[in-house]
Amino acid sequence: MIKGNKIWFFLLAGLLLVSPRVSAVINDIVVEGNKRVETPTVLSFVDMKLGSKFNEEQREEILKNMYASGLFSDVVVQEVGSSLIITVQENKIINAIAFEGNERIKDELMLAELGLRPREVYTPARAQEAAQKIRDMYRLTGRYAAKVEPKMIERDEGRVDLIFEIEEGKLTRVNRIIFVGNSRFSDSQLEKIIMTKESRWYRIFTVDDSYDPNRLAYDRELLRNYYLQHGYVDFKVKSVVAELDPQDQDFFITFTIDEGERYRVGNVSIDSHLPKFDPANMSDELSFGKGDWYDRREVEKSMERLVDEINERGVAFIDIQPKITPNPETLTVDIEFVLEEGPKLYVNRINIIGNDRTNEEVIRREFRFVEGDPLYKTKLKRSEQRLKNTEYFRKVKLKEEKTSSPDKVDIVAEVEDQPTGSMRFAAGYSTSDGVMGSVSLQESNLMGQGLILNSSAMVAQQSSDFRAGLADPYFLGRRLLVGAEAFHTQRKYDTRKAFSGGYSARSTGGTVNTGYEITERLTQDWAYTLRRDKISDFKNGASPFLRLQRGDWTVSSVSHDIFYDRRDNGLSPTEGYYMSLGNSIAGLGGDVEYLKNGLSAGIYCSMDDDHQVVWSNKASGGALIRFHNAIRAVDRYNLGGQTLRGFDESGIGPRDITTGDALGGRYYYRFSSEVSFPIGLPNELGVKGLAFVDVGSVWESKNKTTTVGGKTFVVRSNGQEPRVGIGGGVNWKSPFGPVGVTFAKAVKKKGVDKTRTFMVNFGTTF
Q1: Tens digit of pLDDT for each residue in 196-220?
Q2: How far is it, in rounded angstroms, from Cα 650 to Cα 643?
Q3: Do residues 468 and 455 make contact, with C-beta atoms less than 8 angstroms apart?
Q4: Is 124 in a helix, a strand, or coil?
């Protein structure tokens, strides 16, 4: 009997265990264990109504929601009768964040990048994520072996101190870069292309010689682009291997490449599928032809020119795809530009993000389109380039985002502000001004409004210059530059260094100016200047012609300049040309009257594929027309020094026959042909050699005589025959400022022209 009861007991227990649990009806929910998190916040994670049944699926959903909140380290959900008891253990709160062992990166910089702040929730995962961000910061500074360990110190009331223990380690340098498989280009040529560099003593101002795997990935693309620009269609980077020397903690980088064969351009054609559009004569827009070496840059340039030309012909929505067909048998590439009707897209909205400092209107005014316009790819690209050219931003990216309407897109401009102000202290020496010192302050985006503030002070042995100005490049919201500048200058003119002639000229005044774009490449500027000149301090034996200018003069002048610019870069051009025409008239009041007319032009040509050898040719000329009064020497043209190398400052032109003083001329011309080239040093040193020929002349219409104090003097024009100087030198864009040294010889001179063989200009920044 007893055995039978036991059997029934176990059978009943087994049935209870395997039978489904009956869901309880919950009439109350109780939260326990919470101290900082309020009860209503906890209840917000519970999706059920009182009086309803509770099951396991609801329990799992509650646990999932509460853990996902990041507020709790432990959660228990249990039923007690008709009540649901939720017991929580809250995550700890960060009381303070500290760093130990860091010297290279300041606490403030790391704290700004962490994404953690005091009074936020602490979790081990968040601490490890912050530690990785610190490691990434050290990697960007070249310390790839930096170690970061987060430590937690318990405090009362559920608080913790988070301490990051940092071992910065030594700089992880790239000892050597090896290229395997290259025959067309040398190792030194390829190293110039990539960003990663071998460690050298002169690279103390850069981290390019530190190991960075992200930079190596970019280097692969740079190599591929370089070979494609030189016709190597089949080029491949097989592998990039970085080996660490455990003893020296330096890396050896090996690029294994397959160059393939070099291809020429084969058949070139344009296949148009655009309705009512005849592609006849469009081949004129192509920048290459059959038989040329294949260059991907020229393909992209031709695509842009085709788009511009087709847009001007009234076709707004186009899509151009180059069809590249290599022919390994003949080593040629057939290129077909397929013109399709592109999707009809319009600009819905322009959204700007990331501009913490720069006013939104300052950004919008650089766009070549407005909301509602058709979306032109060329205008989108040009707008991005214009934003980059402002130099207000560290990063600029324009991208398209789809909208609910299939024919409209939003344009999102992602920007990142960067510092736009600079203060510079400089000291140096030049053969024209002697020892010099200067300080300048510039802000190109004043108060985020795009205003330009300039102020500078320069003092040298022979001159001084103080000026301050403010300009608005978009006056009244239009593409109209309006500015004003005040100045005070003084210069000692040494008119004949072999004797004792010379004088000083001081000028105080102001200028208001305006400028505007006629087209994208053509600009026009106007300026009005009012100044007070004082000419004095004549040395013994100075020419009577100069002495006639002694005293105070008021000068009121209006100037005009029209400038056409097709250069690829305004500061260091390698290709393109420019032309300029300027006029200046004085005599709208004041004591001085003249009309100055000037014309200048220049053209730049790259002599190699890498734009390292640049040939430039520049020419200028001017004519100074007299109205009533004599024209002062300070208003006349002078050539010499940097303007005509091989000759001294004011070394050529009209002179007083008796005293030898240079008096300046009313007409001049100048031509300079110069080749700039590398001299075998690494590009980042910024050292280049140059060879030049300078030709020019300054003259009056003829020799003339004048009477001063009862004596007659003769001014020798020396004629308009060309003077020629040839030579060479070195320019260095040093981290401390520009340094230039030139040696020149005057191979054609005349009369009492004064020559100078050696010139140096040096500036340094402290």
Answers
A1: 888 877 676 666 777 888 788 889 9
A2: 9
A3: yes
A4: helix
